Amino acid sequence: MSQHNVGTSIALPDHRARKRFGQNFLQDDNIIRRIVAAINPKAGEHIVEIGPGQGAITTPLLASGARLDAIELDRDLAAWLQSRFADVAGFRLHQADVLKFDLASLTTEPHSLNIVGNLPYNISTPCIFHLLKYQPLIHEMTFMLQLEVVQRLAAQVGDSQYGRLGIMAQYYCQIDHLFDVPPGAFHPQPKVTSAIVRLTPHREQKLVASDTAMLQDVVRTAFSQRRKTLRNCLKPLIADIDPEVLPVDLGLRPENLSLADYVNLSNLLSTARQEQ
């Protein structure tokens, strides 16, 4: 990894991790090296780092020569990061809430953004759903998440963790659970194990929903009452549809349907709605 100027050494102010931001700062050098190796940053590449915190990953990412847009909500940390990396070519700091941030403001080039971050546990799921809206702009995403969230992202039909998050993430992306990160790698130590996951958006959709809003509605409705059969939990969506034409067994539960099943069902419901 080539070395570039990554800013002068500026002491981090006495900063206590803020619970409301879900802050746990990564401090294990070996884990940091493994994460950077997984990201594999390259000179000129456009990286977006969510929640850079104290810059543990920011420094080696910039050392690769990549362009980096950092999104940090905490004002104190944002001010420190701006001072720390102000003189580094290609560094831009956005003091903003990632859940409200428009990635399209950074680029119009398809598949150009490499998004990375240690996502706060309390916003990880809404953050992923927000980012998936920008799938055409994204090359890949590498995140540190709570292990349970990674298991949900990668879950397959019949797994106890299988649900809305995994189905929708897998519709848009290939999911790879890379490795786990123990609590001791952070300060303060979280009470849970973390994991590194890579989400690689499909360049060509393996399955195509004619209306992705309908697909999301079907999956959300199904898993809102996951212990019930599809006949009961999907009642609001299928009330006007002849059960005989539906491409699924309504006696099954939501976790028994594959991604392909949900896409086929949503396509049928979308067509039926258009014909009404």
Would you tell me which CATH topology of the largest domain applies? Rossmann fold
Oligomerization = single chain
From the alpha carbons, calculate the radius of gyration and give it in angstroms. Answer: 21 Å
Under the CATH scheme, which class of the largest domain?
Answer: Alpha Beta
* Beta-strand segment tally: 9
The end-to-end span amounts to: 59 Å
Helix-residue proportion:
25-40%
Q: What is the spatial order of strands in the main beta sheet? A: 4-3-2-5-6-9-7
Report the β-strand fraction as a percent range.
Answer: 15-25%
Task: Examine the secondary-structure arrangement and name the CATH architecture of the largest domain.
Answer: 3-Layer(aba) Sandwich
Largest sheet: 7 strands, mixed
Structural class: alpha/beta
Tally of structural domains: 2
| Mean pLDDT across residues | 89
Name of the CATH homologous superfamily of the largest domain? Vaccinia Virus protein VP39
SSE arrangement, N to C? EHEHEHEEHEHHEEEHHHH
Would you kindly provide a written description of the structure presented here, covering whatever features stand out?
Helix 4 (124-132) packs parallel to helix 6 and helix 7 crosses helix 10. The strands form 2 sheets. This protein has a 7-stranded mixed sheet with strand order 4-3-2-5-6-9-7. Helix 2 links the parallel strand 2 (46-50) and strand 3. The chain has helices at 29-39, 58-63, 75-85, 124-132, 147-154, 164-172, 212-223, 230-233, 235-238, 259-275; strands at residues 25-26, 46-50, 67-72, 91-95, 113-118, 138-146, 173-181, 186-187, 194-201. By secondary structure, it is of the alpha/beta class. It is built from 10 helices and 9 strands. The protein folds into 2 domains: 19-201, 3-Layer(aba) Sandwich (Rossmann fold), CATH 3.40.50; 212-275, rRNA adenine dimethylase, C-terminal domain (Helicase, Ruva Protein, domain 3, Orthogonal Bundle), CATH 1.10.8. The longest helix is centred in the last third of the chain and has 17 residues, at 259-275.
